[in-house]
Write the structure tokens for this entry.
Amino acid sequence: MEKARALRKFKEGLPKSPSKRCAVISTYLARRSPRSPTIANLKHSVSPVEMAVVADIQEIIKSTKLKRSKNARSVMNSVTASISGENLANSRARRVAGGQRIRSRILKSESSAWALTQQKTRKDSISEETKKTVYNFWLSDGISHPTGNKSDIKRERLGPNLYTSHMTHVLEKTQTDAYLDFVAKYPEIKIGQRAFEKLRPFFVRPASEKDRNTCCCRYHVEANLVFKACMKFRKSCDRETDSQESGLSRI
């Protein structure tokens, strides 16, 4: 009863705010002797010696973890080994040996990773025929068209000093609209929109603002070329009619 009454009085004397209450309790415990058996038996009480050891370890790790010298690595191994209680060098050697053993067993088997270039990771993996159909659909009329600029070339790296290039294509509609058109055209092919967009060729890109804006000079040049071609065709027709009329007059 005496303990309960003292605890009740202690609670009533503490502030109402949780932060202030924690500050008062921590200050009270800090002012007591750390060597007192009662304080040492408290679970939430930490000895200043232990705090100093932890602070020293943190300072050592912080100062040496970014260094690349042999001395710094040996210090880090010693500190971590003393904390974890295990020889990290032996543990690392065991992990590396285990990984090499597994890799060698897989590479020497009949289903080696070198031979699994067309591996299907899932039962519903996309077939090569479906990939080809999606590829051709992205390049079909009404979905994308070339930019018309000779300098618009997209290049992709295939390997060391090995590249492939292709004329850049611009989408005429959004990717969602393209997917809906594909589903309507090929209802027998079951493919999600995310997978459909991943199969888009590397040289096909969405339309930007500059693709939607066209200079009037381009229309003028194209109209001029068409007019010249028409005039040339008219002159050729006039020559043919003149030659026919002259032939008839001689007859």
Observations:
- The longest strand covers residues 153-159.
- The CA atoms of residues 145 and 169 lie 5 Å apart.
- The chain has a mean pLDDT of 78.
- Strands lie at 144-146, 153-159, 162-167, 169-171, 204-205.
